[in-house]
Amino acid sequence: VFGLSSVAQVVLGRGDFGQHLSINLGFGIGVTLGIHAAGGISGAHLNAAITITHCILGNLPWRKLPAYLIGQFLGSFTAAATVFGLYYDALYDYTKGNFTVTGPTATASIFSTYPAPYVSLLGAFFTEFTATAMLLLGILVIHDEKNNGALKGTQALLTGILVLGIGLGMGLNTGYAINPSRDLPPRVFTAIAGWGMDVFTAGDHWWWVPLTAPILGSLAGVLIHKLFIDIHNQPIPKSGNEKGQTVVETS
C-alpha cells in the first residue's frame, strides 16, 4: 500500500506531489513495516523469490510454500485494489476514463513494473537479476551474526533502507520489481480492473521477467555471500564462565 500509493501520488499529481525519491521512500517504509508486522509470525516472507530460495536451501519446508505464496499474492492484490479505490477519482481525471499501459496518460505502471523504452529485454533481465542479488546479499549481511551483523531490533529498518538504496541506484531501467509477489498480483488486478491484457504484452511481453530474474538473482546473492563472506567468518567464540576464566567478547 505504501509503495503503490507513493507511485500513484507522483504520477497522478504530475510531479507536484512527490518525485522518484518519494517512491523509493514509500517502498522502503512499506518493507520496514511489513517486516515488523510479520517478522514474528512467519519470518516476514514478503518476497516469493526469497521464499523459494529458502525452500531450495532447505531452510523452509516445500509443503509451506503454497501458503506463503498465496498469502503474498493476496496481500499484494489487495494492496493494488486498495490504492485503486483510494485514487479512483484521480485516475479517472488523469486518464479521462481511458486506462492505458502506454502513451502520455499511461497509468498501469502505478501498479506493476514496466521496462524503459530504451532497455532491451536482456538488459532488463540483467537489471532485475543484479538488483535482487544485491537485495539478498544485503539481507544476509544484515542478519549475519558471525560477522558484523546489525544490532538486534534494527534489522527491519536496515532492510527498508536497503530497498531504498536499490531503488535509488537501480530503479531507472525497470522500476526495480525485485519481487514476483510485488509485481504479478497487481498486474493481474490491472488486467481485471480496466487495463486489459496489454499489461501482459507490453514491453515485449515483459511480465515474465519480474517472475524469473528475481529468483535467479536471489540464488546468486546467496552464493556470493557464501563464497566471499560466510566461509571466511570466524566461528562465534564461546564465552568462558568458569571460575577464574576471563570472558572475552569478540565482534
Automatic annotation (TrEMBL):
The keyword Signal does not apply. One of its GO terms (molecular function) is water channel activity. One of its GO terms (cellular component) is basolateral plasma membrane. The chain crosses the membrane at residues 67-88, 118-142, 154-178, 206-229. It is found in: Membrane. It catalyses: glycerol(in) = glycerol(out); H2O(in) = H2O(out). The keyword Protein biosynthesis does not apply. It comes from the Eukaryota. Keywords: Membrane, Transmembrane, Transmembrane helix, Transport. Belongs to the MIP/aquaporin (TC 1.A.8) family. This is AQP7 protein. It comes from Uria aalge.
